[in-house]
Amino acid sequence: KHAPGVPRILVGNRLHLAFKRQVPTEQARAYAEKNCMTFFEVSPLCNFNVIESFTELSRIVLMRHGMEKIWRPNRVFSLQDLCCRAIVSCTPVHLIDKLPLPVTIKSHLKSFSMANGMNAVMMHGRSYSLASSGGGSSSKGNSLKRS
């Protein structure tokens, strides 16, 4: 309102203290969607979604200033990009840490996921939710569904 055109994201901090939550997640998501912001819940203590939130904010800045060609040049994707795309397309970002991979690769996958608009809660005014394709509380079969 006071600074139109300034890129914004909504960050819910201290996810590791969710039991002391003062703003319900759905209320924060609704506020973010109403104000055309991407919503992230982060935990600096666990290093969860910190890099991803900054990556998304950086991406928005680059896109708004007409630098999309720098960010996504017309090129053939590398084998690493194709592998990352395949993994993050079927793995929710919060489950990447559970994959049997080295920490540096997990970090790269999370950053790739958020930088490429995959597994995000809300992107460009569109909200997404994690939908389970099976019964029970198992995390297997989860996928993103546009709401």
UniProtKB/TrEMBL annotation:
Which pathway does it operate in?
Answer: Protein modification; protein ubiquitination
State the superkingdom.
Eukaryota
User: Which is a Gene Ontology cellular component entry for this protein?
Assistant: membrane
Q: What class of enzyme is it?
A: hydrolase
Q: Does the keyword Lipoprotein apply?
A: yes
Keywords noted in UniProt: GTP-binding, Lipoprotein, Magnesium, Metal-binding, Nucleotide-binding, Palmitate, Prenylation
| The EC number(s) this enzyme carries | 3.6.5.2
Which cofactors? Mg(2+)
Q: Does the keyword Lipoprotein apply?
A: yes
The way this protein sits in the membrane is described as: Lipid-anchor
Please give the biological process terms from Gene Ontology that the record holds: intracellular signal transduction; protein ubiquitination
| Domain SOCS box, residue spans | 62-115
Major site of localization recorded for this protein? membrane
MF (Gene Ontology): G protein activity; GTP binding; metal ion binding
Reactions this protein catalyses: GTP + H2O = GDP + phosphate + H(+)
Cellular localization per UniProt: Membrane
Q: Which family does it belong to?
A: Belongs to the small GTPase superfamily. Rab family.
Q: What is this protein called?
A: small monomeric GTPase
